[in-house]
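hiii so um. not sure if this is the right channel but i have a protein structure encoded as tokens and i wanna go backwards to a sequence. like what aa goes where. can anyone help
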């Protein structure tokens, strides 16, 4: 009787651990480039992100603020924090290949300069009505810094080889299966 209970308890532990093993970020890597990821937890909401190798105009249909995923600097900064905590990591295995997304910024779509890449999250600044961005720099030294000083007039008209725009999409909640 004790052996049956022990086997049942062990099976329960294995099942609960395997359920957690499938949770987390799912990386979209194409031809060695990080195109995006899904399963990001940003303040309790699940998101999918795509890295856009183009301008804000291309990423958001003319840089239309109504299409921005975040509308405050706090929301944009939370999205960046989630990227650096959950996506830009080293020793990530995707389809049997190991990637260092933190220490090799050039692996991210749109980032073609050695040593660093600017990751931009546009938002509409309600205080002054300007389109602006929160951005962090992913450096090969595994650290990053942020700024919100860039404005539409300066940053959105061009596509630079050291930056990528992010396009976030809220993921629908998946209902738990019934027992």
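sure thing!! here u go:
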């Amino acid at each position: 009787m004790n052996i049956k209970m022990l086997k049942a308890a062990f099976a329960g532990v294995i099942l609960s651990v395997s359920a957690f093993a499938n949770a987390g970020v799912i990386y979209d890597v194409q031809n060695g480039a990080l195109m995006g990821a899904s399963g990001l937890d940003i303040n309790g909401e699940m998101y999918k992100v795509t890295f856009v190798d183009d301008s804000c105009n291309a990423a958001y249909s003319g840089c239309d603020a109504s299409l921005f995923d975040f509308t405050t600097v706090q929301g944009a900064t939370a999205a960046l924090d989630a990227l650096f905590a959950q996506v830009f990591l080293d020793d990530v295995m995707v389809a049997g290949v190991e990637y260092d997304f933190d220490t090799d910024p050039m692996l991210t779509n749109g980032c073609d300069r050695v040593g660093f890449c600017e990751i931009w999250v546009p938002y509409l600044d309600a205080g002054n009505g300007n389109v602006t961005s929160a951005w962090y720099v992913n450096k090969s030294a595994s650290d990053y810094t942020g700024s919100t000083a860039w404005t539409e007039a300066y940053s959105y008209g061009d596509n630079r080889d050291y930056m990528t725009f992010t396009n976030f999409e809220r993921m629908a909640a998946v209902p738990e299966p019934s027992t």
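oh and Residues 5-22, 145-157 have pLDDT under 50 and may be disordered.
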